[in-house]
Design a protein that fits this description.
The chain is mostly helical. The protein is about 75% helix and about 0% strand. The protein has 2 domains: about 50 residues; about 230 residues, no CATH class. Helix 7 runs antiparallel to helix 8.
Length: about 300
């Protein structure tokens, strides 16, 4: 007999209607369980991946690598700028401090994929049924945090050792710009990591990308001093708008006044993240077809 009192099941037998209701509840349960799994993969998987990436390194190597090298980079370009009388200390400190947020994101994502391939575990990673979006974005999250810390340390060094005076009221706005810049650079690092599924030497590509950002994005050279084609290319790269916004804030501008630069930087990062996801899917398919995940 038909089930009464429910318009959607009025024409179905009772047993079929009950089965449909159970299937609907099961689907909702599986959807919720899948969402929880994705969240766990994003946060816990990202944390464990970061530990696996750097846990082998003693702190006496880790700290000079992440914090020591940035100090000398900031000091080197600031004193070179003084000698050449190109710009003041603030110009070089802000540019290099924001650029240093890219180092962890780009190198870290290259090491994530390249390290998995080198240790012959990339095939096992790709064989898991985990959603690829939280799987790789979760690995990027600690690197974004690392980039923010490195950038903050470089700003502190510039304030302590050089002629840089940034008002305390500008620090929250500056932190937002650094966080957005770190995200956009890590998104570019995701693209580098995705290409690492196909090329053998992803670390050479990571080095090339990092130094290209230093050259193109106005880190140490004003954009209007670059050739027109380089300035045009720089507008499509991470860091360019973030550095421009950070310099304006250091000079006293509010976050709302540089909002269009921040949103542009965020949009560029989102575009690179979407491109990275597409490349991961494409190269994963090609890697399965060619059995080339662990070719080194």
């Amino acid at each position: 007999m038909p089930l009464r009192g429910h318009a959607g099941f009025a024409s179905l037998p009772v047993s079929f209607a009950r089965a449909a209701v159970c299937n609907d509840r099961s689907t909702r349960w599986e959807t919720g369980e899948s969402a929880v799994t994705n969240v766990r993969v994003f946060f816990i998987g990202g944390y464990l991946s970061y530990r696996a990436l750097f846990n082998w390194m003693h702190w006496s190597y880790y700290i000079p690598t992440m914090l020591g090298a940035p100090v000398f980079q900031v000091l080197f370009f600031a004193y070179m700028g003084r000698f050449a009388e190109v710009e003041n200390d603030e110009f070089f400190v802000v540019g290099n401090a924001v650029q240093l947020s890219a180092m962890a994101g780009i190198y870290g994502m290259a090491m994530t994929v390249g390290g998995e391939r080198w240790t012959q575990t990339l095939s096992q990673l790709m064989a898991t049924p985990a959603n690829r979006l939280p799987l790789f974005l979760g690995r990027a999250l600690p690197l974004i945090a690392n980039g923010i810390i490195t950038s903050a340390f470089a700003f502190s060094v510039g304030w302590l050792l050089l002629d840089v005076d940034i008002a305390a009221s500008q620090i929250p706005a500056l932190a937002v710009v650094v966080a957005v810049s770190a995200f956009s650079c890590t998104s570019l690092g995701l693209v580098v990591g995705a290409v690492g599924l196909r090329v053998r030497d992803v670390f050479f590509l990571a080095n090339l990308v990092v130094y290209a950002l230093v050259l193109f994005c106005g880190v140490n050279i004003p954009l209007d001093a670059l050739p027109n084609w380089m300035e045009t290319v720089s507008r499509g790269l991470p860091l360019t708008h973030g550095i421009e916004a950070a310099r304006a804030i250091a000079d006293g501008a509010s976050l709302s006044e540089v909002g269009y630069l921040v949103w542009t930087e965020l949009g560029i990062g989102a575009c690179y993240a979407a491109a990275a996801f597409g490349l991961f899917k494409l190269f994963e398919y090609e890697g399965r077809r060619r059995a080339s995940f662990e070719s080194i």
